[in-house]
Structures are given as structure tokens and as C-alpha cells.
What we know:
The protein has helices at residues 6-16, 65-71, 95-99; strands spanning 21-27, 38-45, 59-64, 89-90.
Amino acid sequence: SPETSYTRRREAFLEQHRNELLVLSAVGSWDKRVPEGMVGLVATLGGRSPCGEHAGTETYWLVPEREYHDAFETPGHMGYFIIDQARHQPWSRDVDSVVA
Length: 100
């Protein structure tokens, strides 16, 4: 059951959030494309399966570092960060758009 199995909890989490943008990877502000204090995130609908596959189109987002790190302190996140399209800022990974 999900109460006793990490794998079952992860499966339940992915099923529950299959229609949301789940983060696949993150880039810190050490990358010149990411503003100071932010994290650049790559997300796709439903995230990556436990096998490492993802079928959705990648989208790019900027999230405050503190919010990103705090999310992993929240019980039940299962190692995933969920993009809130109403609050999080879309990100162009083009360096010129960050510098301008």
C-alpha cells in the first residue's frame, strides 16, 4: 500500500499530478541565463516516469531559490517540484533575454 511503500507513494503522486507541470531539471543562478536569486527549471506535463521517460513538451520557468528549496522540506513532494503557472514566471533560456 502507499502507506508502507515508497514506490506505491510515488506512483500515487505521479497519478495525482499527471496533468500538472512537474520539474525535470534545475539550473542555479551560477548559469548566466538565470537571474540571481532564481532557479531555472525545465518541466513537462506529468514529469518524468520512474523509468526516466517523459512524453510532454518541455517548458521553462523561473522560480525563487527559497521557494524551490523549501518545497523539498514539504512532506509528500516525492522529489518533484510542481510549477504553478499562475505564479511562476516563464523563462526563455536565451542569454540575450536575461541580459536585456
